[in-house]
Amino acid sequence: MKVYRNHTLTTTTVVSHYPKQIICFFTLALVIATLFFGQHIAENVQDIWRLLTGQAAPYQSIVVWQWRASRLFAALVLGAALGISGAVFQSLVRNPLGSPDITGFNVGAFTGVLLSIALFGNLYWFSVLGAILGGLFSALLVYIFAYRDGHSGFRLIIVGIAISATLSAFNQWLILSVSLETAMTAALWGAGTLNGMTWVRILPAAVLIAVFILCAFLLNTRMKLLEMGDDTAAALGVSVNKTRLALMFVGVALTAVATAITGPIAFIALAAPQIAKRLENSASTSLGSSALVGGLLLLSADFIAQHSWEGSTLPVGLITVSLGGIYLVFLIIREGRK
Q1: Residues whose CB is less than 8 angstroms from the CB of residue 11 and which lie 6 or more positions away in sequence, other chains included
Q2: Distances from the Cα of 210 to the Cαs of 56, 96, 102, 117, 230, in angstroms?
Q3: How far is CA 179 from the centre of its chain?
Q4: How far apart are CA 86 and CA 95, in angstroms?
Q5: What is the pLDDT along the chain (338 residues), one digit of tens a residue?
Q6: Of 255, 264, 252, 267, whose CA–CA distance to 331 is shortest?
Q7: Spatial distance between the Cα atoms of 167 and 180, rounded to a whole number of angstroms
Q8: What backbone torsions phi and psi does residue 86 show, to the nearest 5 degrees?
Q9: CA torsion 266→269→271→275, rounded to 10°?
Q10: What is the rounded distance in angstroms from the CA atom of residue 145 to the CA atom of residue 163?
Q11: Residue 332 Rama label (left phi>0; alpha psi -120 to 50; beta)
C-alpha cells in the first residue's frame, strides 16, 4: 500500500529546487524590459513582434538592436566574468571576502589602464593589455608578500587590502600628475560605466572572456579538490602551487578584461558567488550559478542606472558600489559572529 505525503509548496522550497531556472526567468524578464521598455519603442505586444520580425521603423530597430542589445549583451557577459572570477578567488582563499574587489586585483587593472592612457592615449587594445598586465602584477605582489611556507586565505586577504590601498594612492597621484584631458578621461572611465557600449567594443572582449571562462571550467575539478585543503589535494595528485597559479591567472584575467571594457565595477564578484551558494543551498561554489547570478546582478544594476534618474544615465559602478556596500557590511557582521 502506497503512502502519499502532502508537501507544502513554499517559495523557499521552489527556490532551493530550481535556483538556475529562477535566475534565468528573472534574467529573461529583465532582458525584455531592458530592450523594449520606454516610450516610442514598444508600447504593446504588436510593437515587440514588429521589432522581432524586422517590421519596425528604422529608428526603433537601431535603438533596440544597435544600442540597447549591445549594452545588454555586455552586462550579461561582463557580469558572468566577474561572477566566475569571484567564485575562483573565494574558492582559493576559502573565504567569502576573498574576491578581486577586496584583494585589489581590479585596482591593479585600473592602475594598468591609467598607465596605458597616460603613455599611449585612450587606445582600446592598449587599455585591455594594460588592465591584464596591471591585474597580473598586483596578483603577483599579493602572492609573493602573502607567502609564508604556503598561503592562508586570511593572509591573502590582508595583504590584498594593503596592496589595494597602495595602488589606490598611486592611482590618485597618477591622475593628479597627468594632463587635464587625460585626467578627465581616466576619471570618466574610473566611474565604471556601460555607456557607449557598441558591438565593436564588446565582441572582441567577449571572445577573450569566453576563452578564460572555458579555462576556469577545465580547472573546476582541481579547484574543488583544493577546497578540501592543500594536503588532501596533493595526496589526490593535484599539483597545488601550479593549480593555484593557473586559477589566479584565470581569475585575474577575467576581472582585468571586464575592468578594461567598463572601468572598475565593484561588488559583483564579491556578491554573485555567495548569492549562488545560498540559492543552491550548497557548501561549495558553483561556477555556472555564479556566472548566471553575476550576469543578472550587473544587468539589474545597469537597468537601475538607466531609469532611476530621469533625463540622465548614472554610471553602473555607482549603483553597484551603493548596493554592494550594504551587502559588504552584512557579510562582515555575519563573519564576525562566527
Answers
A1: none
A2: 32, 25, 24, 26, 29
A3: 31
A4: 11
A5: 444 444 555 666 666 677 778 888 999 999 988 888 776 677 778 888 888 888 888 888 888 888 899 999 999 999 999 999 999 988 888 877 777 877 778 888 888 888 888 888 778 788 888 888 888 888 888 888 877 766 666 777 888 888 888 888 998 888 888 888 878 877 777 788 888 888 988 998 899 999 999 999 999 998 888 888 778 888 888 888 888 889 988 998 898 888 888 888 888 998 899 888 888 877 777 899 999 999 999 999 999 988 887 777 888 888 888 887 777 777 667 766 66
A6: 267
A7: 21
A8: -65, -40
A9: 150
A10: 9
A11: alpha
pTM for the structure as a whole: 0.86
Helix (H, G, I), strand (E, B) or coil at 2: coil
Cα–Cα distance, 121 to 130 (Å, whole number): 12
Cell output for 65: 538592436
Please calculate the CA angle 146-84-14 and round it to the nearest 5 degrees: 125
How many other CB atoms sit within 10 Å of the CB of residue 229? Answer: 12
User: Whats the size of the chain, residue-wise?
Assistant: 338
Q: Which three cell numbers stand for residue 214?
A: 572555458
**What's the CA gap between 249 and 139, in Å, rounded?**
8
How many CA atoms lie less than 13 Å away from 105 in the CB half-sphere? 33
- Measured CA to CA, the distance from residue 242 to residue 15 in angstroms comes to 37
Is residue 104 within 8 A of residue 138, CB to CB? The reply is yes
